[in-house]
Amino acid sequence: MQVGTFGFIFIILAGISYNTHSPLFFKLDPWDRIALLVLTVLVYIYLYAKQSSQKRFSYLLILFLPLGWMLYKELRYQYWRYQVLHTEANVLQELGEHFIVGYTSTEEIQALLKRGAVGGIFVTHRNAKHKSKSELTKEIAWLQAQSIKKLPLYIVSDQEGGKVSRLTPPLSQMPTLSQIIHNKPGEEAIFSYARNKAKRLSELGVNTNFSPVVDLKQIDKRSKIDLHSRIWERAISESPQITSKVAGLYSRELVRGGIVPVLKHFPGLGGVKADTHFFTAAHPLPYKEIWQTSLYPFRMISQENPGVMIMLGHVLIPEIDPQYPTSYSEKVIQSVIRQRMAFSGVLVSDDFSMGPVFYDKDGMGGVCKRALQAGLDIILVSYDPRLLYQGLYATIQEYKKNPAFRKKVQQSTKRIWQHKKSMGFSFD
Length: 428
Hints:
The chain is α/β, with parallel strands linked by helices.
């Protein structure tokens, strides 16, 4: 085997090794690690037959590098998991309130729920597919029952309508809010739509919906590299006033139906060209204009509907904080949201499985610590639930050794509990 060919193969093996336990390869779990092991063995068998004994040993040492890195990452993950599941109950339950997690295995999420290690569950298409409405309802009820009784869970989904309908099927397809106001203008159409959605979600056992989208529509600024956010398809209107009115009425009716509405994605993805699933994006407008336009719906709706949560996106407001995205920026959370907006409710992040968090220089653990210290209330880990253990492990260590961090977390826990009580969640 020529040096160039071997180098190419080594790069492939190193790439697989680097991305094991990464959201990028989540759907391949555990086949990414199996593939790395099998490919390494096959390459070495080939080299063993072709090379001298001295070169065989050299190649073996080189091939062991990606394999050894993979093994290290696997052992590190298992260590985080073990430490989290064996943390003192009072500490784990306190910090668990600040995480909402998705799941693929009911056994794995059951182990977390029985220890109070999460404050909510994200239910999505992978949990709903191939299940009837009755089967999914039973599963959600069973999961809620696994939790420590005094800690009712946020049972969350992402049922916007249109393409973002994570529980369809078994729920029937519904249009987006923008389609509703286009086809049937008027308040009654919005109320009817929201009542219908609240009823369907409530019947399943869902009590929180990542909706409405209050990002402003930017019809003429579509980006070819935006593969997932696609706000121009999901937003209500390009007008802050129309967006605020429509989403406000919708949110009010969801609350009446026992569903927590979540306004997203603060400070607004309209006009943001980078896809925040993969990249940190900067809001393109000056802060003064952001306040008057993109933030208008968040400001108005949160004042009129105290039951809402606000979801923070992985978007920079450069004039406020040029370093950290809103989702874990203390400057934005404290100076803009808590002080200037006077919002005292619950703040939840966009998914921390996304690139801006996972590939941050401080890693998942460092970002989780920074986010809770900044005043974020709930960290969402929806796509790749394996990341929960790294985030929980890091925040547990910080909670134990840092009194200032512990005080921040305790203040946030009170906000979460007050919100759950205000929404009528059952506390046994």
